[in-house]
Design goal:
- The protein is α/β, with parallel strands linked by helices.
- It contains 10 helices and 8 strands.
- The chain has one domain: Arginase, Chain A, CATH 3.40.800.
- Helix 9 links the parallel strand 7 and strand 8.
């Protein structure tokens, strides 16, 4: 048995010249994982776009229709931060399908990793912060809707608070949202997760890992989830263009191993998404994202 990896073969979408969102990182990440033999081709699963009614478990029908048909007004498009195209609609829906597939495979194998995902800033009726539909809200909602689980934990370690996810599940006791994020970063208006840990600007590896080591076991004891969704954003890195923390590559790797080991040692299946990360050096950025898969491979082999 090998660690399931979900890859989106149509994930790279052409954007206008000069656009700064690093879409190409997804394909580069996959190439790195294969070239450096972190994964093998037989581990790879390809997702399908979900039916629209699954998107509408979280998002309003009017918003889903307007985005998919390209009729969002200019203000709503600017809030998302990505130019609309049919290719981007397809890529976006594949991303949702990928996280749903990751969750199903995690239940089957104990652990599964996406090469994308983590669009936690999307709200039911609008997108924001490069996030169109919220895979960390839709995938848990689908798993509950299908009756595959009863209790879910979302562990969001992106440098930015998972505000859209927190809003969606604010009155749903079946989903516990836990966010450790830089308190002085986007979004300016935070939502209320079930547990928010705002971190000080410039926090380093040791300080970060000490807080995580205290908080995560306590959350797991309280929630006792049937499934964990883990957002392993690398924008907590010291060199990230939009981050304000100071984790190193080693710190990110230790973080990911700590999360996965803690969850799996206690028998909690875990579905991983790569989350945010921003750099003009896309190869370096993809290498940071590969740390999740390297950590997951090591932890999975020890099961």
């Amino acid at each position: 048995m090998s660690l399931p990896i979900i890859y989106h073969p149509h994930y790279v979408t052409p954007l206008p010249q000069g656009h700064r969102f690093p879409m190409a990182k997804f394909g580069i990440l996959y190439e790195i994982l294969l070239a450096e033999e972190v994964i093998q081709p037989q581990q790879v699963h390809q997702p399908e776009p979900p039916p629209r009614e699954w998107l509408e478990l979280v998002h309003t029908p009017a918003y889903v229709q307007a985005y998919c048909e390209g009729t969002l007004d200019a203000k709503a498009q600017r809030r998302i931060g990505l130019p609309w195209s049919e290719q981007l609609v397809h890529r976006t829906c594949l991303a949702i399908g990928g996280t749903i597939l990751t969750a199903k495979l995690a239940l089957e194998h104990g652990l599964a990793c996406n090469t994308a995902g983590g669009t936690h800033h999307a709200f039911p009726d609008y997108g924001a912060g490069f996030c169109i539909f919220n895979d960390l809200a839709v995938a848990p909602s689908v798993m509950l809707h299908l009756g595959l689980v009863n209790q879910i934990l979302v562990v969001d370690l992106d440098v930015h608070q998972g505000d859209g996810t927190a809003f969606v599940f604010q009155n749903d006791p079946r989903v516990f949202t836990f966010s450790m994020h830089c308190g002085e970063n986007f979004p300016g208006r935070k939502q209320n997760s079930d547990l928010d840990i705002p971190l000080p600007r410039g926090l380093d590896d040791d300080g970060y890992l000490q807080i995580l080591a205290k908080q995560l076991p306590e959350v797991l004891r309280e929630v006792k989830p049937d499934l964990v969704f883990y957002d392993a954003g690398v924008d907590a890195h010291v060199d990230d263009r939009l981050g304000k923390l100071a984790l190193t590559d080693t710190g990110l790797y230790r973080r990911d191993r700590a999360v996965l080991s803690t969850c799996l040692d206690q028998g909690y299946p875990t579905a991983c998404v790569i989350g945010g990360g921003y750099s003009d050096n896309l190869h370096q950025l993809a290498q940071r994202h590969s740390l999740l898969h390297r950590a997951a491979t090591t932890v999975f082999q020890s099961l």
